[in-house]
Amino acid sequence: MDIKDVLEFTDYLFFSQTGKHIDSLQESILKGTLDGQKYSEIAEAEHCTEGHVRNVASELWQNISSALGEEVNKYNFRRTLQKPNFSITSSSFTKEFINVSNINFCYSNIQQLEIMNNRLAPSPPETSQTQNQSTIINLIEAPELTTFYDRTSELTTLKQWILEDHTRLITIYGLSGIGKSALTVKLIEEINSEFDYIIWKSFNNIPTLSTLQTELKDFFSQSQQTLLSTVIDYFRNSRCLVILDDLQDILKSGELAGQYLPGYEDYSKFFKQITTSPHQSCLILLSWTKPIEIANLETENSSAQTLNLKGLGEEATEILREKGLIDQENWLELITIYQGHPRWLKIIASTIIELFNGSVSLFLAEQNDIYLGDLEPGLESHLDRLSKLEKQVIYWLATQAQPVNISQKPANLVLSKPEFMQAIQSLIRRNLIEKVEGGGRSLFLLNPVFKAYIQFHTTDQLYSI
Q1: Domain named NB-ARC: which ranges (predicted)?
Q2: 3 state SS of 120
Q3: Regarding beta strands 130-132 and 135-138, do their DSSP bridges make them parallel or antiparallel, or are they unpaired?
Q4: β partners of residue 198
Q5: Do 239 and 281 form a contact (C-beta atoms < 8 A)?
């Protein structure tokens, strides 16, 4: 896309509405928009306030919208220019005017507009991967969304980050089965029209960065006449949404959380480049664990955000209703015990149907310990990834009846204070322990379901050090 052509075209539109040509700041806004810059970045480059840039941009988009007869804003500007209806035809009234989406322009500019139209018009997308005429979508590796439970707050947050804040890197992490993929599939359903390309890739096959980048470039290039060199180039040239699922599969087991497998360390640099380079796209990572560099990027750059996905609240009653359980007065207690975790609740609901004919009250009667049953394989998959340090600390936490203050290392743990703190931080990033406030201090407790598992099993079998 030639920026000179875009500026001249938008200048025509702006002049048709105001009788004025766009000024240097408005040019910078247009250029910054195409480069994926935030208003704050444009303001810094132009040595003015972000508020002033927003006001000028608002007027600019309003006039362009009026000229084209449709809403145009920072987020759909490029896609609006690429729409097939920007055709150039002679007016039936006079050949001294041309028509672009019902807007008449002086015929003397027709040659330049034809050049621009040819550059902006995209090639027809592949029908097998297309949800609508303007967005090319490949969700072959995404799980099928059969049921979605209310995540209104999380969806609102994600849409704010992507559509308003233009966040470049988003990490959604949480326990397996908590609903990360379902939430993201639902998000795609609601915002797919805001993107030119959407693709879902899984790390199940543990692709190297080189392999992943090649696959992404092949996908982006299928409808473009000019091949670009890097993924970042495509991210700048088009509005792309990329989802990378099961990130934990390229992270080490037996080490502190978030460390990459040998040969996969370059992913860390790639994620940093996505966050710090100006572009108009978004990369979403789905993981059991929060990678180390993601935590660091969050503190350094507002273009990286993390959503720690927790269980459902009362919304989880829909799961129990679908399963046909009875004794609704006990449903919230059951949801609390299993922390609103969708997969856990579905498994336990099947047990209640099998053993108690669907009666929640009978299942809960005289039950002092948390029943695990078929939950155990899923819990083991998390605990098997722990390091030696984490296993020592998590076993100690399983013996504590109340949330603990970690300001002082327990005397019975053969660990240094730094090792103890590292293990706690790593377990937090795995969602195995949680921080709570008590008496103005931060206290920590082990997830009750994992605590029940550890207490139930012989420690010298599973937690021998």
Answers
A1: 154-249
A2: helix
A3: antiparallel
A4: 137, 241
A5: yes
Model's pTM, two decimal places? 0.72
Q: Outline where 222-276 has alpha helix (H).
A: 231-237, 266-276
Structural domains present in the chain: 3-120 (no CATH), 127-308 (3.40.50.300), 314-368 (no CATH), 377-462 (1.10.10.10)
Residues with Cβ < 8 Å from 265, sequence gap 6 or more?
none
Distance, in Å, from the CA atom of 312 to the CA atom of 341, rounded to the nearest integer, reads 6
**Sign of the Cα pseudo-torsion (282, 283, 289, 293, in order):** negative
* Ordered per-residue pLDDT tens for the chain, 465 residues: 577 778 888 888 888 888 888 888 898 888 888 887 888 888 888 888 877 888 888 889 888 888 887 888 877 787 777 665 553 233 332 333 334 444 444 433 434 333 334 434 343 333 334 344 478 999 999 988 878 888 999 999 999 999 999 999 999 999 999 999 999 999 999 999 999 999 999 999 899 999 999 999 999 998 888 889 999 999 999 999 999 999 999 999 999 999 999 999 999 999 999 999 999 999 999 999 988 888 788 877 778 999 999 999 999 999 999 999 999 999 999 999 999 999 999 999 999 999 999 999 999 997 788 999 999 999 999 999 999 999 999 999 999 988 988 887 787 888 888 999 999 999 999 999 988 887 778 899 999 999 999 998 854 454 444
Which 8-state DSSP code applies to residue 208? Answer: -
Give the C-alpha separation, 57 to 73, whole Å.
9
